[in-house]
Amino acid sequence: MANTHARSPGVTVDTADVSLLHSATIGRGPISDLAVDAGSLVVTNFGDNTLAVLDTESLAVRGGVATGQPFAVALSDARAYVAVSSASDDAITVIDTDNGKIVAAYPMAGNVTAVVISADGKRVYAARAGRDGVDVAVIDVVTQSVATIDVAQTADATIDALRVDAAGRRLFIAITDSVSSRIVVVDIESGRARRSIALGAPIRGLELGFDSTAFALTSDINDRGVLHVLDLVANRVYATISVGAAPMQLALSTDGTRAFVVDYDRVHVVCTETRAVIGSVSVGARPSCIAVSPERLYVADYAGCVTSYAVAAAAPMLYSQFVAANSFVAPQVRELQPAGV
Fold first, then answer.
1. N or C: which end of the chain has fewer CB within 10 A?
2. Residue 168 and residue 333: Cα distance in Å, rounded?
3. What are the residue boundaries of the structural domains of the chain, listed by start?
4. Distances from the Cα of 160 to the Cα of 81, 269, 293, angstroms
C-alpha cells in the first residue's frame, strides 16, 4: 500500500497554473513510466518488475501485478499496454487495470522503445530497435494480429517517441541516429513515409497539437534543451523555445496551451501561445516521467513517489473545423510494406 500524503518537503511550485494536491510513496524503486486514463493511473516499477494501478484522485494503490522489466506504458479503456523485457524475450503485455490480471501478451522481436495507442483504442504501435535498424509493430487489438512498418535500416538508429493523429491515418515517428534526428510522417494505410522534418539533436519527446502543429523536444550538450514548434502543413520548424539543461520527456495539456518538460531536477511549464517558459515544479527528488489528464499533472520520480497537481482546466475546443475535417474512420490495416526512409 502506498503512503499517501500532502508532500511538502522539497516541493516547490512557481507558476499560478499549477497547485499541489497529493503525493504517494509507491515504495518499489524508481518509476520508469506512467499513464493516466479515466480514473486509473498506471505506474511501472522497473526495479522490482511490477506495475501498480493508482486512483487518480487519492493516489491510493488499487492493485498491481508482477511483469517482466517494464519500460513504457500506454493506457486505454481499462487496458494497460506495457513494454516489458526479460532475459529471454521482449513483449507488449496487456493488463486489465480493473482486476490486475494479464489478459494478453504479444512477443516483440527487438527492444521496444516507445508505445502509443490510437484514439479509438483499436491499434497499439510499438517502436522496436534491432541489429539491422528500427521498425514499428502495429497490434490490431480486435483481431489480435501484428503487422510491421519498416522505418530505417540504420543499425545505430533509435525511435524516441511515437504519436498517431486523431483520425488514425498518420503515424509520427521520432528517429535519432549518430548523425542527426528527424520526425518521419508515415501513412498508416500504405505503411510508407510521406515526408520528414529534420531536427538535428537527439529527440526526447514528441506531442501533436491542434491546427496542424506538433512539438518536438531535443537535448544535447551544445544546445541543451530546445522545444521545436512544427508546422505539419509547411513541413518545417517555425519556432524554437529554449527549455532546461538536460530535458528527457515532454507532455502537452489537453487544450494544447501548456507543454510540460521533464528536466534533470524539475518540470518546466511552457506556454505554447507565447512560446515562453512560465514556471516550474520541483518534487524534492529527480523527476523521471509525467502524465497529463484534463485537470491533473502527475509527476513520478526516481525515489519511487508520485505527486499530483491541479492544472488549469482545458479551454473549449478552438479548432472545431480542423478536427471535424480530420475525424473520420481509418481503413483497416492491410499488409504493410517498407517505409523506405
1. N
2. 10
3. 3-326
4. 17, 21, 22
Longest dimension (CA), the chain: 54
Q: Which of 9, 3, 20 is nearest to 297 (CA)?
A: 20
The three-state secondary structure class of 324 is: helix
Q: Which residues contact 221 (CB under 8 A, 6 or more apart)?
A: none
CA distance 332 to 27: 43
Gyration radius (Cα) of the chain, Å: 19
> Parallel, antiparallel, or unpaired: how do β-strands 50-55 and 123-130 relate?
unpaired
Q: Which helix (H) or strand (E) holds 325?
A: helix 320-326
Please tell me the predicted confidence (pLDDT) of residue 121: 94
> Confidence class of residue 335 from pLDDT cuts 50, 70 and 90?
very low
Question: Three cell numbers at 144?
Answer: 489480435
CA 4 to chain CA centroid, nearest Å: 25
pLDDT at 323: 38
d(CA 139, CA 115): 11
Whose cell is 520528414? That residue is 196
**10 Å Cβ neighbour count for 310?**
13
Tell me which DSSP letter residue 257 carries.
S
User: Is 3-326 a CATH 2.130.10.10 domain?
Assistant: yes
Q: Can you give the pLDDT at residue 273?
A: 93
Give residue 182's pLDDT: 96
Instruction: Give the start-end residues of each E strand in 67-191.
Output: 69-76, 79-85, 90-96, 102-108, 111-117, 123-130, 133-140, 145-152, 158-164, 170-176, 181-187
